[in-house]
Amino acid sequence: MAKVLLVEDEPIVNRMYEKALRFEGHEVDVVEDGEAALSHLESFSPDLVLLDIMMPKMDGFTVLSKIRENKKYMDLPVVILTNLAGAEDTKKAMSLGATSYLVKSDLEPSKIVAEIEKNLK
Amino acid sequence: MLLFRLNMNVPAELFLLLASALLFLAALLVFLAWLEHKSLGNKENLWEGGKKPAEEKLNEAIFSSIGEGVIFVNKESKIVFFNNTAEKLLGYLSIEAVGKPFDKIVKFKDSTKQSLGGKANPIAFTLTHGKSFSTSPKVELYQTKKNGEDIPISLSITPVMVDGKLAGTVEVFRDITEQKEFDRLKDEFFSIASHEIKTPLSVIKGNSSILLDYFGDNISKDISEILRDNYEAADKLISMVNSFLNISSLELGRFTFDVKQFNLEETIERLINYYKTVASSKNIKLIYKKPENELPKIVADPDRVDEILTNLIGNSLKFTEKGKIEIQTILKDNFVETSVSDTGVGIDVKSREQLFKKFQIAEGRVLSRHAGGSGLGLYVSKNLVEKMGGKLYLKESTLDKGSTFVFTLPAVING
């Protein structure tokens, strides 16, 4: 069992991933914008962050770079989960320190759960 | 008695018939003469005061007022004629332009806004080779105004022949700024709408899979069937939207290609492995036939090649009920030619023409039963291959015997 911070602004989407993760026995904290993600990072202290890119208030790229700025979170797995499929976006996220980059479309919840568990080692 | 009467009657009737035919003919002649006279009269009345202006003056007036820009350049490369619309579109006055070498006034840029100077100027091309040139959705051009601004144009440049000899060339062009802006907005709307459709579809698909994965054992057969159908329906729609997105980025030129040198055979073998289960469940053999000599690497985007092969193999699987699907590669004129042949239903002649157009699924009674998919796969694949410098085409097809599709991609040739 792991603690997963799920950052995703679309309720129907985050409810789906929340269930998929919970049914696999993980504890999930859901937030819907970048600023909340940073504050919950402290209070929830997750084992992994599942991070969307296009969000209100603060986008995922900014959240990611702020996470990596803090030495405490240097090794925290951050999995990007986005609709942005362009090579440029992938490169940008990886250079900012993302652990892996997933494109939402066509990704079934089970595949996302598998990817998360792979990155929890 | 009867005979006599008959004999008498026949000539009388014939005479009557002849007379009426002659009368009709005469009336017709009079009518034609009147018509001729009327139209002659009309021609004369076409002009004010019944007098036609001098041919030369008339022609110039017509060309001047045409709604498209018209520029005539003579054989000595000098501008001879520059009409009102050309003045409006380019900002030069006719008196400024006429007499000047055309390349001082008529300047073109290609779709990447690279200047087309010297021999690359399409007017120079036409003057040198005596051949026409025109823009198309694939060949975009800009023309530079006097103030330096570039406007997108559609044009045709045609050699003008007088007594069989090249006298010069005429450019007819029009500003397509508004049309381009409209196309851009349309494509952008399309692309945004597709994204907005994809999210809820992924949720329907994803939630169906969650229910099946975690509650599949506790639900009735009917409910599980409903969930499976929902899952498949959403899946189908998602792949359709993906094709839409591919098309709009292809057409917007936003498609990025990550071109590398790589081994095509590895891709083919991986895909064969992937499709093996589906193929064997239909009792179809899926084979890769290697060339005799070692195949060189190709220069292309591996992900796109994956997409193209997936589409061709997927189509073959969809339309083949028995037999085999064979993939073959050969090196031919610095290109690697890959063919995908099947022993499927084949494509009728009527459908062949439509095959590579948008939204086409093979028609005909035989095929419609099997038809599925978005009808976009071949259109997208062909576009992708062409963008990477190759060709994709239907090599042959026989009804009930099968089809062979071929695509080519540039090979890495050393030395």
UniProtKB/TrEMBL annotation, chain A:
<dbReference type="InterPro" id="IPR050595">
    <property type="entry name" value="Bact_response_regulator"/>
</dbReference>
<keyword id="KW-0805">Transcription regulation</keyword>
<keyword id="KW-0902">Two-component regulatory system</keyword>
<protein>
    <recommendedName>
        <fullName>Response regulatory domain-containing protein</fullName>
    </recommendedName>
</protein>
<keyword id="KW-0804">Transcription</keyword>
<dbReference type="GO" id="GO:0003677">
    <property type="term" value="F:DNA binding"/>
</dbReference>
<dbReference type="InterPro" id="IPR001789">
    <property type="entry name" value="Sig_transdc_resp-reg_receiver"/>
</dbReference>
<keyword id="KW-0238">DNA-binding</keyword>
<dbReference type="InterPro" id="IPR011006">
    <property type="entry name" value="CheY-like_superfamily"/>
</dbReference>
<feature type="modified residue" description="4-aspartylphosphate">
    <location>
        <position position="52"/>
    </location>
</feature>
<dbReference type="GO" id="GO:0000160">
    <property type="term" value="P:phosphorelay signal transduction system"/>
</dbReference>
<feature type="domain" description="Response regulatory">
    <location>
        <begin position="3"/>
        <end position="119"/>
    </location>
</feature>
<dbReference type="Pfam" id="PF00072">
    <property type="entry name" value="Response_reg"/>
</dbReference>
<keyword id="KW-0597">Phosphoprotein</keyword>
